[in-house]
Amino acid sequence: MTKNFNLYQSRKGAVHISLGNSDTILTYNQLIALQIDVYSLPDFDYESFQKHYKLNEYAEMGETV
């Protein structure tokens, strides 16, 4: 049995994965581990992505993102 899933970005910047009736927000670490190219998401908005995942805070702490 094959199931299809959908990846999308919410208005608040989070990346979601949906399968059937389930919808889950992916963490930044999950996006990296799954090698998801967020730039290929329809209507991707980097600014809202950056705000949701607090990428500026990581950069301030000296972590690589």
Please characterize this protein's 3D structure.
It is a single chain. The protein is built from three helices and three strands; from the N terminus they run E-E-E-H-H-H. By secondary structure, the protein is an alpha+beta fold. The chain has one domain (6-60). Strands 1-2-3 form a three-stranded antiparallel β-sheet, with no helix packed on it. A hairpin with a 5-residue loop joins strand 1 (6-9) and strand 2 (15-19). The longest helix is centred in the C-terminal third of the chain and has 7 residues, at 46-52. It starts with 5 loop residues before the first strand and ends in a 5-residue tail after the last helix.
Brief summary:
The chain has helices at residues 28-33, 46-52, 55-60, and strands at 6-9, 15-19, 22-25. It has 65 residues and is an alpha+beta fold. Strands 1-2-3 form a three-stranded antiparallel β-sheet, with no helix packed on it.
Keywords:
alpha+beta, three-stranded antiparallel β-sheet, 65 residues
SSE arrangement:
Blueprint: E1 6-9, E2 15-19, E3 22-25, H1 28-33, H2 46-52, H3 55-60
Antiparallel strand pairs: 1-2, 2-3
Number of helices: 3
Low-confidence stretches are 61-65
Count of spatially separate domains: 1
Percent range of helical residues = 25-40%
Measure the end-to-end span: 36 Å
Structural class: alpha+beta
Overall pLDDT level:
87
